[in-house]
Globin domain protein
Amino acid sequence: MEPREIQYVQQSFAGVFARKADLAERFYVHLFTRLPAARAMFRGNFVKQKMMLTAMIASCVRNLDDPRRLEEIGTRLSREHAHLDLGPRETEAAKRALIAALRDVLGDELDPATEFAWASAISRVAGAMPRH
């Protein structure tokens, strides 16, 4: 990612973090619309799952300029999700669901350059996740 893209993501994150509950809710709405079977993957405390999602996003945003740390986060995410046997289809659906949730939450604040930067960041994190 270019430094300017990292800046776009990090600057827009204040608006995202202020509405992190909305972001998590919208993410899962979009994910389940794209991948209805994914709903079965989420059992137990869904509130906790949403909190973990937003904490992970915050951690990734803070570390976009640290490739080593981002790779560590990707490895941890991969390990935590290994039992789900996620493939490219699920990964792509999650990436698209997150962008759609960002559109919902940020509205007009998500200009094309900022959306492109978020898409790059999301792809970078997904790319840092080792495949099992």
Remarks:
- Helices lie at 3-18, 20-34, 46-62, 67-81, 88-106, 112-128.
- The chain has six helices and no strands.
- The chain has a mean pLDDT of 87.
